[in-house]
Amino acid sequence: MIIGMPVWVEGPCAIVRAFIKKYRDKMRSEVYFVCTHMGKNDYMSKIKAMDSLLGRASSGQFSVRTKQNDYIKESAGIAATIMSGM
Ligand SMILES: Cc1cc2nc3c(=O)[nH]c(=O)nc-3n(C[C@H](O)[C@H](O)[C@H](O)COP(=O)(O)O)c2cc1C
Q1: Domain with 30 in it
Q2: Among 7, 64, 74, which is best to mutate for testing ligand 1, by the most ligand atoms less than 8 A from CB?
Q3: Considering its fold, how many domains does the chain have in total?
Q4: 85 pLDDT above the threshold of 80
Q5: Nearest CA among 21, 82, 28 for reference residue 51
């Protein structure tokens, strides 16, 4: 399962955080977090911290900058993250 969300106000948005907390017991064993953001900060530590909402370790995390980025490189990074979890 891949859960995508934007960064709002310096962290993964509250709506998706609430979704994870509410439905974590119904989610598949492999859960990946993909977070989009505009700024330079990759927010990886905050994305990884969502494991505490999930109640277990997520299988992979990825951060995508939506402005001034290299889409091919970012897409390849997501694919590599997912493949490494398999
Ligand atoms: C209310 C709000 C707060 C945001 N806060 C941040 C932020 O703190 N850092 C950041 O990098 N991007 C921030 N963004 C940008 C979003 O992460 C970005 O719009 C989203 O990832 C989707 O990308 P796109 O607008 O290029 O489609 C914010 C956007 C909104 C609407």
Answers
A1: 2-84
A2: 7
A3: 1
A4: no
A5: 21
